[in-house]
Specification:
Helix content is about 20%, strand content about 45%. It is α+β, with helices and mostly antiparallel strands. It has one domain: Lipocalin (Beta Barrel), CATH 2.40.128.410. The protein is globular, with a radius of gyration of 21 Å. This is DUF4251 domain-containing protein.
Length: about 170
């Protein structure tokens, strides 16, 4: 009796797993390749959003972030909605905009993919400061953003590229 119950239970589990795996008709490798192609197309078209999950200030420990912080590239425009933790040297009274601004991109250098990581450097300027964003995006969509400016200490962020088009 125990063998019969075990056999039926094992058959049900295996049948359920096969239904879950075949739900979209794609193998794991095909889904991975499709995601890689979507990421490459978004980076090539300069239309992508990186949703940020953690901030890494230079002088502090890693800070986990709530959902909603992001960096968006839309053609020649940078939309930065990022928090800032660290030392600021010369900023407007009240803290200024920090890393929360929209500005035109003055320099965009896509260095291509090396070992599955795409390296992008861009420069943007607003009325408070000039910023250098260094973005590394892996084939799986994991991203790191390093932000340097003249008036603030460097800070970096970790997140993931959103596959929903902006």
């Amino acid at each position: 009796m125990k063998k019969l119950v075990f056999t039926v239970l094992a058959a049900c589990v295996l049948a359920g797993c096969s239904v879950l795996r075949e739900g979209d008709g794609m193998t794991r490798a095909e889904r991975k390749e499709a995601k890689r192609n979507m990421i490459t197309n978004a980076l090539d078209g300069r239309r992508y959003v990186i949703e940020v999950r953690t901030a890494n200030p230079q002088r502090y420990t890693q800070v986990p972030l709530d959902y909603g912080y992001s960096l968006e590239i839309a053609g020649d425009t940078l939309k930065s909605y990022l928090p800032y933790y660290g030392r600021a040297y010369n900023i407007p009274y009240g803290g200024g905009k920090g890393l929360n601004f929209t500005a035109p991109i003055s320099g965009y250098d896509d260095r291509g993919s090396r070992r599955g990581v795409r390296h992008i450097e861009l420069t943007a300027k607003n009325d408070e400061d000039t910023y250098l964003y260094i973005i590394d995006v892996s084939d799986s969509g994991y991203a790191t953003i390093d932000v340097s400016s003249r008036e603030r200490e460097r800070i970096s962020f970790n997140g993931e590229m959103s596959l929903a088009m902006p």
